[in-house]
Amino acid sequence: MRTEGRGILCTSVHTHTTFCDGADTPAAMAAAAAEMGLQTLGFSGHGYVPQENFGIPPERVGDYCEEIRRLREMYAGRLEILCGLELDTQTPPSQREEAARLDYRIGSCHAVQDAAGRFWTVDDTPELLRQGIREGFGGDPLALVRAYYDQFVPWVCALRPEIVGHLDLVTKFNQKEPFIAEEDPRYRALALGAADALLEAGLLLEINTGAISRGWRTEPYPAEFLLRRIREKGGRVTVTSDAHAAAALTFGFADALSLLREVGFRSVWELTAGGWVERGIQVN
Ligand SMILES: [Zn+2]
Ligand SMILES: [Zn+2]
After folding, report:
1. N or C, which end of the chain has less CB nearby within 10 Å?
2. What is the 108 CA–ligand 2 centroid distance (Å)?
């Protein structure tokens, strides 16, 4: 796996462990974060998705929080550890309420619902995405994409999580297995409309390198035209790796910072135990 510099960044708060679909235990993630000299490590296990029996089931959340509490004490003075969840549009309300009592929440959409009420995941495999377009949206890729933004945006604006997860996740496979033209003004209008609504709601968005580390994309989410809009509107962003393994904790951070600088951002935000910290991005 490619490992590279993390630039000025000191935190990694979009991470997954063996409590959901990650490869490493929380203890292994914490050991790696301490080794890398990070200031803050945040755990954001997947909220439960009953339709697929995916994520951390409600009865396991207690163990998850307990293990993170144990690590927080163990690393006190060396590494700050935060306990969060990455909630999904399908996560049951009871777990959503429980998550509101944790250190932070990431609000994400990984699946769209069709008119018949069936859910189709957009980031599992290209085959499943194609099946969703075919069987759930009458073969119209744009209809699936529209449903994605239409379902994601009002939900996340109402949730008001600390971080909005991978805004244009629906395009995950589009570089390698194209199904829509991201230059198409109809697509752009949907994605830009979504970005505008989130910014008007004052939400903070992540620049997520997860699909790069997993070989699906060469650029982070959101796409550059969306980053430009976020910049123009004065939006706040944080850089995350969506790490599903300890080695990926700061994957692509330096490149993401360069991209943000190029697009005109002057600072990024990092979530620490003391709250959000703004870090200036130096111009070389
Ligand atoms: Zn996600
Ligand atoms: Zn994630």
Report:
1. C
2. 8
Give the max Cα distance, the chain: 56
Residue range of the domain that includes 226 = 11-280
Taking residue 17's Cβ as centre, other Cβ atoms within 10 Å add up to 26
1: in domain = no
Using the mean position of ligand 1's atoms as its centre, give its distance from the Cα of residue 271 in Å: 18
261 in any annotated domain: yes
Whether the model clears a pTM of 0.85, i.e. scores above it, the answer is yes
Q: What is the pLDDT of residues 58-96, one digit of tens each?
A: 999 999 999 999 999 999 999 999 999 999 999 999 999
- The verdict on residue 33 lying in a domain is yes
Span 141-153, average pLDDT: 98
> Phi and psi at residue 82, in whole multiples of 5°?
-110, 150
- Residue 149 Cα to ligand 1 midpoint, Å, equals 15
Residue 2 lies in a domain: no
Q: How far is the CA of 110 from the centre of ligand 1 (A)?
A: 6
pLDDT score of 1: 35
Supply the CATH number for residue 113's domain: 3.20.20.140
Give CA 79 to chain center in angstroms.
22
Q: What is the pLDDT of residues 125-144, one digit of tens each?
A: 999 999 999 999 999 999 99
Number of domains in the chain: 1
Residue 282 CA to ligand 1 centre (angstroms): 29
